[in-house]
Design brief:
A hairpin with a 2-residue loop joins strand 7 and strand 8. The chain is built from two helices and twelve strands. It is globular, with a radius of gyration of 16 Å. About 5% of the residues lie in helices and about 35% in strands. The chain is mainly beta and about 170 residues long. The strands form three sheets. Strands 3, 4, 5, 7, 8, 9 and 11 form a seven-stranded mixed beta sheet that branches.
Length: about 170
């Protein structure tokens, strides 16, 4: 039975690095039974991850535990990452889950957003806080919400070496 809503992730714990390297991971999103107090117009989900891909190869090395050289969103690298789109004035939620081995300070240009939830679902309104960068720790989820403004705005991890390696 699903008794609470929120953004969750699944992944193996047996031979974890090998199974993650072949993509055995994902998001499990539970929507509330009743309407949310503030309706969401656009709802996006990003799974953050890392890989070790050696020169001349095309497959991740599951034996590498800490020396990663590729950082992905939904297992894709820029410019292949599907970006969120919205009309100006729409309320947008971005759900982020981190299955990588690093924390990611996720930054959105052109907006101040509210951090509105975590693994336990959407927080009560009095717990929301404004940010432009939110750290999504290893094994954590974070939900952010904002009202879209006109323009094309970058959304990326604020660690320079992650951004330079396609996140």
């Amino acid at each position: 039975d699903l008794n609470q809503n929120g953004t969750y992730m699944y992944h193996p714990h047996a031979d974890e690095m090998v199974q993650l390297a072949v993509g055995m991971m994902g998001l499990f999103i539970v929507h509330p039974k009743d309407d949310e107090p503030e309706a969401i117009d656009r709802d996006y989900a990003f799974l953050l991850h890392n890989w070790a891909i050696h020169p001349g190869t095309y497959r991740p090395d599951p034996n590498v535990m800490v020396e990663f050289d590729l950082w992905t969103i939904n297992s894709k690298v820029f410019p292949a990452i599907e970006f969120p789109v919205a009309q100006a004035g729409e309320r947008v939620r971005i759900r982020m889950a981190n299955l990588s081995m690093w924390n990611h300070p996720m930054h959105l240009h052109g907006h101040t957003y509210w951090v509105t939830g975590s693994d336990g679902g959407r927080w009560p309104r009095n717990l929301w806080r404004p940010e432009t960068t939110e750290i999504v720790g290893v094994g954590q989820t974070r939900d952010i919400e904002f009202i879209a403004t006109p323009g094309d705005w970058a959304f990326h991890c604020h660690f320079s070496h992650h951004t330079m390696n396609a996140m």
